[in-house]
Every structure is written in structure tokens, then in C-alpha cells.
Specification:
single chain, alpha+beta, Alpha-Beta Plaits, two-stranded antiparallel ribbon, 9 helices
Length: about 280
């Protein structure tokens, strides 16, 4: 397993006035933008004329003429401010997209997955529904990186992600959990169904070698399976169960599926599932 990527840098918080201007620019139509600039220009012209009359004793006609001349830089400044605000709005949208997708694999990143999985886990607990978490580790990816290069390792991880995704339903949540690990939350899935899904993933990844330049690279995955149960006080409990199952799969020689003991979810309910 490769080292986990460093945690993301803290997100910079823009001043409240800049956030408000960015939102306004993103929503403003062309007509309202032009009206805004015209209003700014008129205000500047009036202020300049008034200051000339009061402070310099200039007559109103001359002062108004000077104010009109001040319209040019005022309009230019207004246009520049509006253009900047629109650019900030666009970059803000792009940053939001980058915050939820993993740059390499294109699936959700860990932060986005935890947010969505928390919602699904809470729903399972509230309504007594089934749900499961799979943690998938690309076996010996560090060894592949060392022997064939980082580009090869990245290509394999992307292909593993593609093959995993090909086995999932539309409602399943897939994310890069960190390093060589992927995570899948399976809503409406009982323990046996989760084990079946994990085995399909393992077989799909191992079904054919990965082609890299002039070489064929054999890659496999280890999968840990955990099911939502009443003994979990939070989503972290489900994650810890899946991590323990994944560690058991690695200790068993990798390229296999292991599950934590299935806990009863209701009083008197028992389940016996082996992996």
C-alpha cells in the first residue's frame, strides 16, 4: 500500500464582502450589470462636482463637466470590479468541484465520501435498513511503483477504480479513500449481498492483466467488508470494522475477501456469515 496523500491544506476563507460580491456577480444578468456600472458612474460624477463646488468654489457647470470627465475612470473601475467578481465566482465553482472529486481517479474523494456515507449510515440506523461498507486495497501497489514507476502505479489504480465501478449499482457510493484504498458504501445491502459484491469486485479486478506499455502487470485487490449494526455508535465504528476486515484479508495472503463478524441489528435477530 502506498503512503496516504497529505491532508488537504485548510481552505482559505474570503472576507464576507468579497463573498457577497462574488455571489452577486455570479447571479447578475448583463442588464443589471450595466445598470450597476451606470449607477456607480453617476454617483462618482455627483460626488466630484459637489466637492469642487464646496471646497474650491467652482461653479456648478464647470464642476459638473469635471464630474462627467470622472465618469470614464469610474466606468472602467466598475467594469474591472465586475469582471474580477465574475472570475472569482467561476474559480469558486471550480474549487468546489475539485473539493469533491479525486484528481487521479475521478471518483469522490475521502471528504465527500464521508459526508455522503454519514447520511446513508444515519438512514440505515433510523429506519432499520441494511447497509454495508467495503474497503478495497490494491495489493502491493508500492512494490509496483518501485519496480515500474509511479506512472504505472497511477495507471493501475485508475484501472482498478474503473473495474470496481463497473460492478456497482447506480445507488452505490465509490470513492478513493486514500493512497491505494477505495471505499464503497452499499445501501440496501444485507451481509450476504455485501460479500457477493466484494467477491465480484475481487474477481473483476483479477480477471485480466493490466497492460502497461509493453508489459502485462497482474494486479489484485483485498477487500474488507463490514455491515451496519446497532453496536456502532457512529460511522467511525463501521469504518473501523471494515478496516479490521481488510487487515484480516491482507494477513490471509491478499487477493481475498474478509468480513467482520456480523452483529444482530435487532433484538433477538441472529446472523451467521463466514468469509
Amino acid at each position: 500500500m502506498v503512503n496516504d496523500p497529505p491532508p488537504p491544506a485548510p481552505r482559505a476563507v474570503s472576507p464576507a464582502w468579497l463573498q457577497a460580491l462574488t455571489r452577486l456577480a455570479g447571479r447578475a444578468s448583463l442588464g443589471s450589470a450595466l445598470a450597476f456600472q451606470a449607477g456607480v458612474a453617476v454617483v462618482v460624477a455627483v460626488v466630484v462636482a459637489t466637492l469642487l463646488v464646496w471646497l474650491d468654489g467652482t461653479s456648478w457647470p464647470v464642476a459638473l463637466g469635471a464630474g462627467v470627465l470622472a465618469l470614464v475612470p469610474a466606468v472602467a473601475a466598475g467594469y474591472a470590479a465586475l469582471h474580477l467578481a465574475r472570475a472569482l465566482a467561476q474559480s469558486s465553482v471550480q474549487r468546489e468541484m475539485l473539493m469533491v472529486d479525486d484528481e487521479l481517479t475521478g471518483v469522490s474523494n475521502r471528504r465527500q465520501f464521508l459526508r455522503l456515507a454519514e447520511r446513508e449510515w444515519s438512514r440505515c440506523r433510523r429506519y432499520g435498513d441494511d447497509g454495508a461498507l467495503l474497503l478495497i486495497d490494491a495489493d502491493h501497489l508500492r512494490r509496483i511503483n518501485d519496480s515500474m514507476g509511479q506512472r504505472c502505479g497511477d495507471a493501475i489504480l485508475m484501472e482498478v477504480t474503473r473495474r470496481v465501478n463497473a460492478t456497482l449499482r447506480q445507488s452505490d457510493l465509490l470513492a478513493r479513500f486514500g493512497g491505494a484504498e477505495l471505499a464503497v458504501f452499499l445501501p440496501h445491502t444485507d451481509p450476504l449481498g455485501a460479500l457477493d459484491a466484494a467477491e465480484r469486485i475481487r474477481q473483476q479486478v483479477a480477471s485480466a492483466p493490466f497492460r502497461w506499455e509493453n508489459a502485462h502487470v497482474v494486479a489484485t485487490v483485498s477487500v474488507g467488508v463490514a455491515h451496519v449494526h446497532m453496536g456502532q455508535a457512529a460511522l467511525d465504528g463501521l469504518i473501523q470494522d471494515a478496516e479490521a476486515a481488510l487487515e484480516a484479508a491482507k494477513e490471509a495472503g491478499r487477493n481475498c475477501v474478509r468480513a467482520t463478524p456480523i452483529q444482530p441489528r435487532r433484538s433477538g435477530e441472529t446472523r451467521s456469515v463466514t468469509s
